[in-house]
Design brief:
The chain is an alpha+beta fold. About 30% of the residues lie in helices and about 25% in strands. The relative contact order is 0.17.
């Protein structure tokens, strides 16, 4: 009887660990955005080609997986030029596509990669 209880306990721990596991990126980094607020808070989002996304809000990390339609939306926006923002913006947004140079400050032009990544940091999705 004790062996059954031990096995059941171990199985419960394994299932709990599997259910609480967060998605880990397993592919190349496509997009990065950083937000720097005037109060010193820094935020960052990294989107990988497999849809895995890591968002850092200060000391807090969140991980989500974006569906294919949102990945396609990001790809279409990334094909467009990134407009320059202003150093007086709050927050100041920096955007990097692939291994390219960071555009900082980036403007939140509607439909742009900067605007979409900013929305992702706010809502954890592109579609509210």
């Amino acid at each position: 009887m004790k062996l059954k209880s031990l096995v059941a306990g171990i199985a419960a721990l394994v299932i709990a660990a599997a259910c609480s596991a967060t998605p880990e990126p397993s592919s190349s980094l496509l997009y990065v955005a950083t937000r720097s607020w005037s109060n010193g808070i820094e935020e960052r989002v990294e989107v990988f080609s497999d849809g895995k996304t890591v968002m850092t809000h200060g000391d807090y990390d969140e991980r989500v997986t974006l569906p294919g339609d949102q990945m396609s939306e990001l790809a279409a926006a990334a094909a467009l030029p990134i407009d320059a923002g202003s150093n007086s913006d709050d927050p100041i947004l920096g955007v990097t596509i692939g291994s390219g140079a960071e555009v900082r400050p980036a403007a939140l032009t509607p439909g742009s990669i900067a605007e979409l990544l900013n929305k992702l940091l706010d809502s954890h999705t592109l579609h509210e």
